[in-house]
């Protein structure tokens, strides 16, 4: 019973921080115009990237930061800058150059969209990475640590299922709705990116 509660707490915390539901408008905007088959492939790529990212930091996150002399705060600042650049393009109604460039082929573009910015840093960002590392550190037994890893898997699968439902949302919104939603999401992303940078600076300087 205690182990199950540990799993539920870890899953709830990760789901709230990764917020895959909040990623749906971004997913719709960056995949607008692509085929359903490609959209499913992008959703799978996002799921795999989120899973691998969170599992990696859960297992060796502290060692990675120590080895490269970096920190979660630095990751937060870098992720915030990337999102802000993307938000500016979305506010102007353009496809962000962070998501796609004119020189890239379609296949490469789709792969890039899935990894950056959807999976990283929008879903598996600094907050999710920090949460995973903290839960692993607070789990004394192997069984409890396994529950945290299982929570990561479940959140990744949940993200995939939520992104798959985005197609139905797009059909109801239409082209005009997508354009409006893109600009609205751009404003939200701008505020999120600024907050990520602020949090990173506060953490780095102990403010």
From TrEMBL:
Pfam families associated with the record: MarC
PANTHER family xref list: UPF0056 MEMBRANE PROTEIN YHCE (PTHR33508:SF1)
The protein's name in its UniProt record: UPF0056 membrane protein
Bilayer topology annotation: Multi-pass membrane protein
Gene Ontology CC annotations of this record: plasma membrane
TM regions (residue ranges): 6-34, 46-68, 113-135, 147-166, 187-205
Swiss-Prot/TrEMBL keywords: Cell membrane, Membrane, Transmembrane, Transmembrane helix
Main location: membrane
UniProt cross-references to InterPro entries, sorted A to Z: Multi_antbiot-R_MarC
Entry's localization field: Cell membrane
UniProt similarity note: Belongs to the UPF0056 (MarC) family.
